[in-house]
Design a protein that fits this description.
Blueprint lengths: L2 E3 L4 H8 L4 E3 H4 L7 E6 L5 H12 L6 E6 L11 H7 E2 L9 E6 L15 H14 E7 L1 H11 L5 E14 L13 E10 L3 H7 L3 E6 L3 E6 L5 E4 L9 H11 L25 H17 L19
Pfam families: HTS
Function: Transfers a succinyl group from succinyl-CoA to L-homoserine, forming succinyl-L-homoserine.
Keywords: Acyltransferase, Amino-acid biosynthesis, Cytoplasm, Methionine biosynthesis, Transferase
Length: about 325
């Protein structure tokens, strides 16, 4: 089944060229079906690139998904045309009276910024508080995972001395958990962050189900017992060259970054990288949509209630 997005969203043409089934709003309006309503709070600077990455992963599901894009505030963007934001993005005030099946909060380039210095921190907290009563399941990605752990569990910011960048091996810890169904015992996933997520710290400070970890990168995937909050510390949505672009940017800014781990052939930045995590990313999002959203959400979102949610079998 397709994802439903605005007719002229730039991502539509890209996804159609990749033979991904995308349905326009005008066509979807003729169908009698209850699609899942998923809201994406896009905190990344290059919003068109990021929205395309997430829409690509949401498309690989038998479920029809109606996607809406949310911006954190109305400040001008240096990396996204204002016309694009005005046309395709909503302000929180326009959606806060509604309920959604799923919410995705993306990463943000704020790894070295203290939470209290983030200009939209209070607004982000308002959105996360709102989600408790209006969203079936929220997926926090990279920096958003750290922000979510702070706002939901009051965990302090833990910053690494060296940026974690590359593609790392991960092991699963509960093969019967619904989020891990179909996963290999070991899989690859990219990281690009300064945040530190050690399994020991999360186990001591929270009752989260820690589902996948890496010896080098720490916790990759964790979830609350009711699956209403899912934390992904890496970037399963990244395209093959995303880490490369970040590395070139950091080199250009004189940051002297390490070469991303396990990314370039022969560890040579002059060689073209290839994605080794694509199948895992699609499976993770498919499982989240099915088991954390579709299997939990009420048919009528107006009857949203805590009683709808159950622990994993």
């Amino acid at each position: 089944m397709p994802i439903r997005i605005p007719d002229k969203l730039p991502a539509a043409e890209t996804l159609q060229e990749e033979n991904i089934f995308v349905m326009s709003e005008s066509r979807a309006s003729t169908q009698e079906i209850r699609p899942l309503r998923v809201l994406i709070l896009n905190l990344m600077p290059k919003k068109i690139e990021t929205e395309t990455q997430f829409l690509r992963l949401l498309s690989n599901s038998p479920l029809q998904v109606d996607v809406e894009l949310l911006r954190i505030d109305n400040r001008p963007s240096k990396n996204t045309p204002e016309e694009h934001l005005d046309t395709f993005y909503r302000q929180f005030e326009a959606v806060k009276q509604r309920n959604f099946d799923g919410l995705i909060i993306t990463g943000a380039p704020l790894g070295l910024v203290q939470f209290e210095d983030v200009i939209y921190w209070d607004h982000l907290q308002s959105i996360m508080d709102w989600a408790k009563d209006h969203v079936t399941s929220t997926l926090y990605v990279c920096w958003a995972a750290q922000a979510g752990l702070k706002l939901l569990f009051d965990l302090p910011k833990r910053t690494r001395k060296q940026k974690l960048s590359g593609v790392y091996h991960h092991q699963i810890h509960d093969p019967h958990h619904s989020l891990l169904r179909g996963f290999d015992d070991e899989f690859l996933a990219p990281h690009s962050r300064y945040a530190d997520f050690s399994p020991e710290f999360l186990s001591e400070q929270t009752d989260l189900d820690i589902l996948a970890t890496s010896e080098q990168a720490g916790v990759y995937l964790a979830s609350t017992k009711d699956k209403r909050n899912v934390f992904v510390t890496g970037h399963p949505e990244y395209e093959s060259h995303t880490l490369h672009h970040e590395y070139v940017r950091d080199v250009g800014e004189g940051m002297e970054p390490d070469v991303p781990v396990n990314y370039y052939p022969n560890n040579d930045p002059e060689q073209s990288p290839r994605a080794s995590w694509r199948s895992h990313g699609h499976l993770l999002f498919s499982n989240w949509l099915n088991y954390c959203v579709y299997q939990q959400t009420p048919y009528d979102l107006d009857h949203f209630s805590e009683e709808n949610f159950t622990k994993d079998e």
